[in-house]
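Let's sit down with a protein and look at its sequence and fold side by side. Once you have written the record down, we can walk along the chain together.
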Amino acid sequence: MAIKIPYLAIGATILVAIGVASCDSRDRKSVQPATAPSPVTPAPSLVRVELIAPGSIAPGESVQLTANAIKSDNSVENVNERAVWQSSDPRVVEISSSGVAKAIARGEAMITVRFQSRGASTRTFVLPAGAYRLSGTVTDSGLVVVGATVAVIGGVGEGLSTITDGNGTYTLYGVRDRVRLHAKVDGYFNRIEEIDVTDHRTFNFAMISDHQRPDLPGRYTLNIVRTACLSGKNAPPETRSYEATVAQDGPRLTVTLSGADFIVTGGRGNAFTGVLDGSNRVTFAIGDPIYYYEYYNFGHYDVIERISNTSALLISGKVTAGLSSRGISGTLNGAFMVTQAALPPLPPATTLIQAYCYGTAHRFEMVRR
């Protein structure tokens, strides 16, 4: 006998099947993984700054310099307008805010450019086209000669002239090929030399005295008298008197002191050196206690005398003197300083200075005994 299934039951069965299928579809969609975001590429960082500048610029000429930012991805970006430009000597080279260099006068200058945290520098000369810098020192027995005139008297650059500085150094800008040089200074024979200049180069002059040097070795009494102070505090002793022994080696002079309670450390504390130049002028250098006092931990001073159980006197500066029948006399441009402590090492702090007097004309006299 045939079984009859009601239409209502069939419909319900179909609906249930559809519902199950729909749920299964939603379940499968819910477990699909989400799409991962694309990785962010970091911006390239600044590695260094490249400075492009000519090695030489002719006087009056203007040149556009170049500052490039070199980045971590090897890309190159011109940053002329955003960089900071500087010349070490605007009297020689001026630089605009956009990197235009103008040559003002013969010489040389360091050009520096900075962009963000990086920078670069280069040296540029101001010279006529094809010319070079010639420099050197003028000496006497290995000691520098200050105030000597060095001139070009023949060849490219004829008429150029300069005077040696405190280091005995001269520099001439704008010479080339075969040139004739003339060096002169009072108390020495003139020197004339011919040299070839095909690049920047150095040439030194050794001067010879034109007279017999005075003999200065022997025993002296040294008197140093403090004069009016241009700056200072309290009152250091006014006068110091020491026994002095002078040794001489050509123009070199060495003065060793005795007759007082000197604090000697590392061979320094009771002696100083000097030079007798061709004009019979004497220059002594008696250290610089302010420099040592601030930057060193030890009592390396040229003249330091214990004046009490708790203090010491330092004398320093530059002596300029001449010769007389009595000996050597002149002035001391320098300082008298009283500091705490009477045993080395001295304390490295200027706050411990008890008295100080700086002047340009303290009296300095060495009388033969």
Summary: Residues 6 and 12 are 10 Å apart (CA to CA).
